[in-house]
Amino acid sequence: MSLYSVKMRASAGGRHTSGAERIVTVAQLPATTQALTNRALSHPNGVPDFLNVSVTEIIGDIVQVPALEVVEVASQSVAETHTYLQQFFADHKLNPLALELLFSVTGLRGAMLIDARTGANLSPDPDRGVRVSAMDHADSAAAESKQYFAEAMALAAKVAAHPNILAELCISDDPAYTTGYIAFEGTYYRLRNCKAPGEKLGTRVFLYDGPAAEVAETIDYLENTPVLVMPR
Length: 232
Ligand code: WAQ
Ligand code: MG
Description:
- There is one protein chain.
- 27% of the residues lie in helices and 30% in strands.
- By secondary structure, the protein is α/β, with parallel strands linked by helices.
- It has two domains: 3-57, no CATH class; 66-230, no CATH class.
- Strands 5-10-9-8-11-6 form a six-stranded mixed β-sheet. A three-stranded antiparallel β-sheet has the order 2-1-3, covered by helices on one side.
- It is globular.
- The two termini are 23 Å apart.
- Bound molecules: pimeloyl-AMP and magnesium ion.
- Pimeloyl-AMP (WAQ) binds next to helix 5, strand 9 and strand 11.
């Protein structure tokens, strides 16, 4: 059975407002493209003046990766979430520069890819970042429920499956959505209260821990390899 990679991206005045990735069957294409169009048009980041929904048949193999285990972090405030992350970084000897970037950078379409040791930015186009694409849950009911969580789980599982990625940090750029996560060693730590409601802050940071010679192929995997996330 053929599968299709569906990508949506929208912008207003050149600023990214909304994007999404699905992998679906031909029977699901009309509903999927319509749902993504509706989403772009009603996004809290603004009404787009540019909207692109593309459909590409996937030729060749689709890589299957396991879903991450989910741990809900009980944080009651933004300050508690900061403290939790600082402690997490100290416990696991992660570079605190990644945390500074998480809480300061915003407005990228993709993720910052940084060297886990030096903090150097490895993205070929730092203003765009690395855009993870061509992934979905194998089970489309999982993909369609709880949109933010399901999409983040699919993206995080694809990213985490690459041996050169040590960790991922994420805060939603949706002003109303204050939950984020850190993905590390097969676990998705779900973080409430990453920011105050109404804040525009939102970004992703990938910590790269692999040979310099493999940066380009790692980015190629993140951007182009079709991946289905298998239920645990
Ligand atoms: N690839 C790389 N980076 C991306 C991608 C992508 N496909 N999509 C978004 N980003 C980056 C970009 O810098 C955005 O500004 C930032 O991540 C946030 O994107 O309940 O909604 O789509 O457990 O706003 C996580 C928590 C929600 C879910 C994540 O991200 C939960 C979210 P958003
Ligand atoms: Mg968003």
